[in-house]
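Practice problem: predict the structure.
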Amino acid sequence: TMVSAGNTSDVMVELKDGVELQDGETLWVMLHNDSGDMGTYEFDGSNGLDLPIEDDMGNIVTKSFTVNVMSEPTGSLSVEDQAVADNKVSMSSITLDQPGFVVVHADNGEDGPVVPAIISEPLFLEAGTHEDVEVTFTEDAGVMTGDTLWAMLHTDTGEAMVYEFDGENGLDMPILTEEDTPVMMSFDITE
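Answer:
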């Protein structure tokens, strides 16, 4: 990756095609001069081009770091049709591979949820499997018998344990399936 002379921070380096990193793997960053064809990395260890930069003591300028491979979050949920009890509904089962939230959305009338608005208090959950998870509706939810609602799982990528999804800020996004659709399930409110 070409960097200009002077101080540079937050440099993104694109890996070669086919390179797969393992979580915890140690990599080394090394600075090189651009002494051959400008903008083309030509160092091969013997051609004398684009040699590593050395400090005042003659040491090659290099630094190691540990790779933290972030996997795409996964999750699943199960919820049954049910009556509201004490302004709450219960999710039969929720599984998350990393901490996240479960929320309830109203139905948009077109077989989908109203997003980003939620009608429940967001419930933070640690990674793992949780059963009989109670989710509380907001005071103004207006849930009635016969309503179709949508339970949905979200990541926790912003401030820890604070639900910040607004549909635009990129925080606490819905967890997606392999088909790139949100992990969600509809259920009906019964008597």
